[in-house]
Structures are given as structure tokens and as C-alpha cells.
From TrEMBL:
Signal sequence, renumbered to the chain: 1-26
Originating species: Cereibacter johrii
Name the UniProt record assigns to this protein: C4-dicarboxylate-binding protein DctP
Family from the record: Belongs to the bacterial solute-binding protein 7 family.
UniProt entry keywords in alphabetical sequence: Periplasm, Signal, Transport
Pfam families assigned to the protein according to its UniProt record, in alphabetical order: DctP (PF03480)
Cell compartments where the protein resides: Periplasm
Domain of life: Bacteria
NCBIfam families documented for this protein: dctP, TRAP_S1
PROSITE patterns from the UniProt entry: TAT (PS51318)
Length: 334
């Protein structure tokens, strides 16, 4: 007679036999996606959306691990980590490709080069965008998509309504020579600094001010440590979603197809929310009441444009006159 104990033993043996009959599931391919901003930004939300869709469209063959807020790497390190294969995917801002030796991307940093998102998209969705990506290939990097963030505002602890107000201010910038030239043109002192260090630098007075789209300022609470801001929209900040080329080319074809589908949808999503996220962040900072916001009058705007115009000429040699001309042709601002 089967006792309760022998029944339990039989059930255990049956379970073991069944497990042995099912081939061990292959380990998912892990994609580490590192970035430096908060999860509730356009880029952070785009990365989360990609994670969800990539796992769905590859039937779990891929496991995307998103590391926000510089948890894994800061700005400069993350590009090195990608080239070494320590992470597989990033979305650095377009201002951060100069140190990699691809200075053409700094064209996106030229002051007032895009009149708005539509003009920007003629570049990122067109031939110029593809041409820029082709320049990454011999660095071991493949460009997959452009993700929008937004147009930058300036902040400082003193009023900054006119270019003259910048004289001598220490301003944090990303690692772009064009942004360095921009701050120099305003008479400010540019300081390159990793994004993760900006809040503390503003708080302790290591720098006086900075520039960023509202979504980045708000989610890092920069408005809590900046008394003034000007809605200057003087430049654009957005991203290139990039992968380690060797890793990408080595993926099984059906997996890569699933990831491409996921990325196309995540890109539509991220670019669809960017403007609204920035509008909401700007309003939230205004509502917080810790920063006095200044809107430029037409005369002030003209003064900013005039002060910053020489940067285009000055940086043509670095960016490449052809790249600048291609961007201006695409946007119709020749
Ligand atoms: C910055 O460093 O200010 C930005 O590039 C951060 C980001 O990734 O948006």
C-alpha cells in the first residue's frame, strides 16, 4: 500500500523526471542600458518603454536592465564602458560625442540652430541624421535612434535677462566645445562637469548657474538651488540611442528584429512625450516658487541672438562646415 510518504516521494521523482525531459532554457541575452538622468524624464521613460517592449518582442530572449541616474557610470565613463562592452546600450546627449572624436555631433549645440521640434526632426529623421550615425561606426558604436529632450533654459543665482548679465558667472556645461564657445560669447566662465555633480555644485556655489531643458532641471531639483532662470530656448539638448556595434551585429537575426521593432515604438513614445514633459516641468518649477522665471522680450531675444551668432562661424572648423551647411539646408535656414 502506498503511504503518504511514498506518494510524496513518487511525486518528487516524477517532477524531477519531468524537469530532466525539458531542455534547460537558454539564459536571456542581457542588455545593460545605462543613463544619467532620472527615470521620470523623457529619456528615462523612453528607456523603460524600450525595456518593456524589447522583452515582449523577443519573447523574453532579451533581458534589458536599465540603470538610471548615473548609477553605473557617469557621462564620460559610460561611453568608455560601451566601447569596452561593459554596457551594451546608452543614450548620451548629442553634446557628449566630441570627446569620442566625433565632433560633428556638436552641430546640435549651436545656439538657435533649430527654431523648434519640427526643424530638429528634419535633421534627426533625415539624411543628416544617418550621415552622423555613420561616423560612429569606426569607433565601435552603432547609432540606432534619436530621442528628443528639449530646448534649454538658463539658470543662475543672479538675474540673467541680457547677455551682459553673464559676465564672469561660472556656468556648468556638458563636454562640448560649442557650449564652451557659447558661454565664452556671453562673457561667462564655462565649467565642464558630469551631470550627476551639478546639483551639489550649484548648491555649494562651485558654479553659479547652468543650462538644461526644464525636465532635467526639475527632476534633479536644480530649481531649489537657483534663484533665477531665463526661458531663453537658446539651444537644443537631445540624445542618440547607441549600442556596442560588435554586440549588436552578433545578435541572432530574429532577436535583432525584435529589438528594432521595440526601439521604433519606444522612439515614437519618447519623442511623443518630450515637449509635454518639458512644459510640465517648467510649470512645476514656476509653481514651486523658489526660482524667479524671466521670459525674454523681443529686444532681449535679439540681443541674445546677436551675442551668440558668432559661435556658428567660430565653431565651423571644429564641427565641419559641410555638416553645418547640411543641417541648415535640412532646416531651411541657409
Ligand atoms: C547633461 O549632462 O546636462 C545632460 O546631457 C544630461 C542628459 O543626459 O540629459
Amino acid at each position: 500500500m502506498l503511504t503518504r510518504r511514498s506518494l510524496a516521494a513518487l511525486a518528487g521523482a516524477a517532477a524531477l523526471a519531468l524537469a530532466a525531459a525539458v531542455p534547460a532554457l537558454a539564459q536571456p541575452i542581457v542588455i545593460k542600458f545605462s543613463h544619467v538622468v532620472a527615470p521620470d524624464t523623457p529619456k528615462g521613460k523612453g528607456a523603460t518603454k524600450f525595456e518593456e517592449l524589447a522583452e515582449k518582442y523577443t519573447n523574453g530572449a532579451v533581458d534589458v536592465e536599465v540603470y538610471p541616474n548615473s548609477q553605473l557610470y557617469k557621462d564620460k565613463e559610460e561611453l568608455e564602458a560601451l566601447q569596452l562592452g561593459a554596457v551594451q546600450m546608452l543614450a548620451p546627449s548629442l553634446a557628449k560625442f566630441g570627446p569620442l572624436g566625433v565632433q560633428d555631433f556638436e552641430v546640435f549645440d549651436l545656439p538657435y540652430i533649430f527654431k523648434g521640434y519640427d526643424a530638429l526632426h528634419t535633421v534627426t529623421n533625415g539624411e543628416v541624421g544617418k550621415m552622423l550615425f555613420s561616423k560612429l561606426e569606426d569607433k565601435g558604436i552603432k547609432g540606432l535612434a534619436y530621442w528628443d529632450n528639449g530646448f534649454k533654459i538658463m539658470s543662475a543665482n543672479s538675474p540673467i535677462a541680457t547677455p551682459d548679465d553673464f559676465l564672469g558667472l561660472k556656468m556648468r556645461i556638458q563636454s562640448s566645445k560649442v557650449l564652451e564657445a557659447e558661454m565664452n560669447a556671453l562673457g561667462a566662465v564655462p565649467q565642464v562637469m558630469a551631470f550627476s555633480e551639478v546639483y551639489q555644485a550649484l548648491q555649494t556655489g562651485v558654479v553659479d548657474g547652468t543650462e538644461n531643458p526644464p525636465s532635467n532641471m526639475y527632476t534633479q531639483k536644480m530649481h531649489e538651488v537657483q534663484k533665477h532662470a531665463t526661458v531663453s530656448n537658446h539651444g537644443y539638448l537631445g540624445y542618440a540611442v547607441i549600442v556596442n556595434k560588435q554586440f549588436w551585429d552578433g545578435l541572432p537575426e530574429e532577436v535583432r528584429a525584435g529589438l528594432e521593432k521595440a526601439l521604433t515604438e519606444a522612439t515614437d513614445y519618447a519623442n511623443g512625450i518630450a515637449k509635454e514633459e518639458n512644459d510640465k516641468s517648467l510649470q512645476a518649477m514656476k509653481d514651486a516658487g523658489t526660482t524667479e522665471f524671466h521670459e525674454l522680450t523681443p529686444e532681449e531675444l535679439a540681443a541674445w541672438e546677436e551675442a551668440l551668432a558668432p559661435v556658428h562661424e567660430e565653431m565651423a572648423g571644429r564641427i565641419g562646415a559641410e555638416t553645418i551647411a547640411a543641417v541648415k539646408a535640412a532646416t531651411g535656414t541657409n
